[in-house]
Amino acid sequence: METVVSTPAPDEGRSGWRLLGRTVWEQRGGIALGVTAGLCWTGGKVAVPALVRQAIDRGIASGSSEEVARWALWIGLSGLVAAIFTGLRRYLAFYEARKAERRLRNRMFAHIQALHFAYHDRMQTGQLMSRANTDLQAVQGIVTMIPLTISNLMAVVAATVIMLSIHPLLALLALGTLPFVNVLGKRFSSRLHPAVRGLQEESAQLASVVEESVAGVRVIKGFGAERVQHSRLSKEADDVFGMAMLAARVRSTFLPAIELVPNLGLIAVLAYGGHLVLAGQLTIGTLIMFNFFVLFLVNPLRMLGQIIAQAQRAAAAGERVSAVLATAPAIADPDQPRQLPELSQGAPRGAVRFEGARFGYAGEGDAQVLGDFDLRVPAGASVAIVGATGCGKSTVAKLIPRFYELDAGSVSIDGVDVRELALSDLRSNVGLVFEDTFLFSDTIAANIAFADPDAERAQIERAARLSGAHDFIVELPEGYDTPIGERGFSLSGGQRQRIAIARAILADPRVLILDDATSSVDPEKEHEIREAMAEVMRGRTTIVIAHRPATVALADRVVLMADGRIVAEGTHAELLEHSEAYRQVLAASEPGGRHG
């Protein structure tokens, strides 16, 4: 499957930062509460060294046990305030971060589902999974860091102000290394950003290989290709490891520096401050307070270094998330949707008409799948579309529910152009049963009622009876409440197909499309599916895409396609008698025949 590679826009690098800004703005109320709790933590934390200074100078130095006890009580209260609010600021920070992640994930999931089929044809599933999980976690991580970072920054500011107000020169010696932290931080972020971006891209590629390996495990085992797939996985894992080590090397050059630089300030304070104490120009309590503050600043400064790395990672993830959210659906609701006409009770509905339809998946004139395609299916009638592989049969089925947009011409249902209908209205009136039946990991009843989860059990059973599924369902251990495995592989092909037909029946569509609904079923079981199809098709507008003669014969009329056009039409018997091309197509589909 081709990977979607978007062309970088001039401001692509800023799209991640804009996403972060919008996310923070949407959470501003909760983040403000977290910041407030962080400031209370700052007050309690910064007060402790200042109170220790008073306890030493006014209590221990003067030999007053009462003063020592009084200042010790204040130190205990300040520590309690810091302890309470450090828990509260973390809770609020993580709460708002997870809330932001949930909001973005819901928005992204809704947007992905709204995107057109052509986008999903090109985009790897693993890429989308990575962006909806790993990248969103990076974005929520930056929301977590905001209250923590602001409180740490204010702690640095408060400690700086206190030290400057007591002894400016000693404070400058203690804090003189801070500008170097900013220089290191800027250099660190510029080197880390490409490494982090590459790591996220490689992780998405790895997720794609894992997803394909799990989804295609039956094909892999069937061809004995475990080693081939393992080699692909190993290569992607090595690429992830290489990019992770590159990012680790960048971090390893910065974090030791952020650890070392404040300690240089501690050395300066001990050297010069100790000299002042010996000279009687500084109290022991003040020197110890300065040492407390320098040691206290190590963690806040480390956190400030981490926020730079976290912000770069979040911005890189934000770019990837923004790339998905910025993709406009090529197929969307019209500004003023029309409604399908309401018909009198019992009147046939679902007339389908193609007029001059032209379509190509590449969107280019020289790659047309359909060319000036015309087809009229009266309401309540059934038509089978037959043709060699690649002639455009399945494309016709995909254009009716507007999975793709026509290049020219029109498709209408009951006289209304499908482009004038709301997508939800259009697709609720078109039921599809594909060759590759997809069932969800849920109960049989839930799969049948997929389009209408509130359907009553009587409606579910009626749909199952019409599709011929009821008899085998009631024989299962839990009947309709029997859970089925992923994609329904615990059932036979014919059973899955009948459940898919029941699912389409329950939706009660105006138009039913059966796209090679019997091709994956054993010929011995095909008659069971045909009987169900005949029952479902009665009085309902149905388009049958098939190549087996017995299935084709179920339709009132048959059209033969070649090169994106209708080249012959009539009843099954008429075409058998008069069309050599029709006989050749059917002969190629028979056992032992040559498939086109």
Describe the structure.
With 596 residues, the chain is an alpha/beta fold. It has 2 domains: 16-325, ABC transporter transmembrane region fold (Up-down Bundle), CATH 1.20.1560; 349-429 and 549-596, P-loop containing nucleotide triphosphate hydrolases (Rossmann fold, 3-Layer(aba) Sandwich). It has 20 helices and 10 strands. It has helices at 12-26, 28-60, 65-114, 117-122, 125-166, 168-175, 178-215, 217-222, 226-278, 284-325, 393-399, 423-428, 444-448, 457-467, 470-474, 493-506, 523-537, 549-552, 572-578, 580-589; strands at 352-359, 370-377, 382-387, 408-413, 416-417, 430-433, 511-515, 541-545, 557-562, 565-570. β7, α17 and β8 form a beta-alpha-beta unit. The chain is elongated.
What distance separates the N and C termini? Answer: 23 Å
Order of helices and strands: HHHHHHHHHHEEEHEEHEHHHHEHEHEEHH
**Overall 3D shape:** elongated
Gyration radius, rounded:
35 Å
- CATH class group of the largest domain: Mainly Alpha
| Main sheet makeup | 6 strands, mixed
- Work out the count of structural domains: 2
Overview in brief:
This protein has helices spanning 12-26, 28-60, 65-114, 117-122, 125-166, 168-175, 178-215, 217-222, 226-278, 284-325, 393-399, 423-428, 444-448, 457-467, 470-474, 493-506, 523-537, 549-552, 572-578, 580-589, and strands at residues 352-359, 370-377, 382-387, 408-413, 416-417, 430-433, 511-515, 541-545, 557-562, 565-570. The chain is an alpha/beta fold and 596 residues long.
